[in-house]
Amino acid sequence: MSDDLLPIGRFARLCRLSVKQLRHYDDLGVLTPAWTDPASGYRYYRPAQARDALMAGLLRAMDVPLPVVARVLSGDDGGALKQARDGIESDIARRRRGLRLLDRVLAEGLPAAEVSVVGEPARRVFVARESATPSTIPDATSACVRRLLPRMSPDGLLVGLFPLDMAEEFDVRVAVQAADGEDVLPGGSFAAAVHVGPYEEIPLTVHGVLAWFGDYGHAPAGPVREVYLNDPATTPPEHLETRVMIRVGDDQ
Questions:
Q1: Is the pLDDT of residue 168 over 70?
Q2: For the structural domain made of 116-248, what CATH number should be given?
Q3: What 3-state class would DSSP assign to 252?
Q4: 8 Å CB contact between 113 and 193
Q5: Which residues pair with 158 in a beta bridge?
Q6: C-alpha pair distances (Å), 219 with each of 32, 119, 243, 251, 252
Q7: What are the residue boundaries of the structural domains of the chain, listed by start?
Q8: Element (H, E) at 172
Q9: Does CATH number 3.40.50.2000 belong to domain 1-109?
Q10: What SS3 class is residue 249?
Q11: Mean pLDDT for the chain?
Q12: Do 140 and 132 touch, CB atoms closer than 8 A?
């Protein structure tokens, strides 16, 4: 063993990390000790490793994932830090949307949507789909809309399709009505309510419609449909109108 090696406790104090953290970094291959005593398993580090350890602690304090930290310390960043930054920014945006929803609930109470049962015909549509997680639904929906832009007509309905059961990962779909559409959007009886306000607050109306199913003992059948009734490019967010529709599945 070299005389310049530091035991794990002293190295931890030097780098403002805990012994537990250093052991965890070693187990994952993020920061390997310079030498490990084969008899005791005790770990030792070189003072020159402090720079990497301090960088690891700094990045973890900023919620950078450990696999990204490992890539940075190995010198193979490859844009990983930029991706981590984008992920944190997306999480902040999601939390801000949650705060705005919470503010509305605090101001107005739990949602109570005006629900009516409507008949909806089958429609021919073109469909775009994107994989999403609960936090990336807005981005996935926007990506679908961009792909459908060449197929949109001024009077064609634009419909978002979202699963009732939210898994960790799922498909978001957006359909645009077209006479020569390659797919068919099924018709039937739907519980419907009009949401007025920003798209990010649509979940309040969705919850209101689902509460109607519970109140009247009906079974909902997915997906949740969001029919966008006006153009967000020319309509202020507070005046956007979206028809939320969930199929009544009692007869299935």
A1: yes
A2: 3.20.80.10
A3: coil
A4: yes
A5: 176, 228
A6: 56, 16, 19, 9, 9
A7: 1-109, 116-248
A8: strand 170-177
A9: no
A10: coil
A11: 91
A12: yes
